[in-house]
Amino acid sequence: MAYTISEAAGISGICPYTIRFYDKQGLLPFMNRNRAGVRQFSELDMECLEIISMLKATGMKIKEIKRYLDLCVLGDGALEQRLQFMRDHQAEVRRQMEEYKQYMEVIGYKIWYYETAIDAGTEYIHDKHWEDTGENARRRYLREAGDG
């Protein structure tokens, strides 16, 4: 089945302008056009759009996505290279997830800090009763959250 750009946009959640940009960047190497030059998206193209979206969402630059798709065009001769590409990207996403986990801990601490201050009617509750500032307050938060 062939999809129009509007249909492809509706299914993929990617706006037509962005799909056209991806096409111009060579990210849709398997896409065909009809005699009038209108883009026709196959199931394979839809899979490419899904992969492009995932790679973009995980921080990959267009140039790197293009490099990956160029490997896909090579077929079986580039299977090992594609596997290594995905392994490398997986490692990078894992690193990002660890970084975000640390951010979430700080955000969780700040939420706890404000909730306890609001309950007490003042944020000085942290200094006054617990002598909690900085690292000490974070340790108390982790104890109360069950992580420490």
Radius of gyration: 24 Å
Rough outline: elongated
Strand % is: under 5%
Helical residue percent?
55-70%
Average residue-wise pLDDT:
89
Biggest pleated-sheet summary: 2 strands, antiparallel
CATH T-level fold name of the largest domain: Multidrug-efflux Transporter Regulator, Chain: A, Domain 2
- The residue ranges in which pLDDT falls below 50 over 5 or more consecutive positions are none
Task: Say how many strands there are.
Answer: 2
CATH class annotation of the largest domain: Mainly Alpha
Task: Give the end-to-end Cα distance, rounded to a whole number of Å.
Answer: 55 Å
CATH architecture of the largest domain: Orthogonal Bundle
Specify the structural class. mainly alpha
Number of domains: 2
Name the strands of the widest sheet in spatial order. Answer: 1-2
Along the chain, the helix and strand elements come as HHEEHHHHH
Query: Count of helical segments?
Result: 7
Task: Please provide a written account of the structure.
The chain is mainly alpha-helical and 148 residues long. The protein folds into two domains: 73 residues, Multidrug-efflux Transporter Regulator, Chain: A, Domain 2 (Orthogonal Bundle); 67 residues, no CATH class. 68% of the residues lie in helices and 3% in strands. The chain is built from seven helices and two strands. Strands 1-2 form a two-stranded antiparallel sheet. Strand 1 and strand 2 form a beta hairpin. Helix 5 packs across helix 7. The longest helix has 42 residues. The chain is elongated and about 75 Å long. The N and C termini lie far apart (55 Å).
